[in-house]
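Continuing the series of single-chain predictions for the mutant panel. This is the parent chain; the variants come on the following pages.
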Amino acid sequence: MSIPQICWIGEQTLSVIRFTVIDAEGTTSFVGPCHTIKMLVAACSRNPASTNELLEYTRPFDESFVEQVRSGLAVFDEHNTREDTDAFHDWKSSLRNRDLPPFRIFDESMRQESLEPAGSGLLLLNLRKQRIIQVQNSYEEVQREDRGRVRRQGEPIPVLYRYSLPEDWRIVP
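Parent structure:
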């Protein structure tokens, strides 16, 4: 088993993983702590149609994580358009893949970046085809049914949530 890469957040260390979300409007990619795997899978159990819905369904489990992703996407949208992605490419040239802010896929270079594992790996969440693809995941296998711990300000609290993916969702491999 490979050792996951670690990032420092203040005094705390977290394993991270890249999530790339595909919906009818396009593709979005972001890096998050590995514990958010369960949260995003739990959100998928509610059959979100869009990245926005996926994030909204994730909010009860870790509101600060969702706000960080949304804030990052807002900054991306302020500086990039489908016709002008210079800001993203500047970020890409000065940051490691795992440190890139959340971004939308507008060209082939961005697509390649969204398919590069960060830290513990890469999960593709295809909302259109209801598939969770574990491209690389050295943290913990995705389960059809599981439970996780709710977080406040990124810290676990003594409240659990449970989820069960509907049968029409596939986990690959």
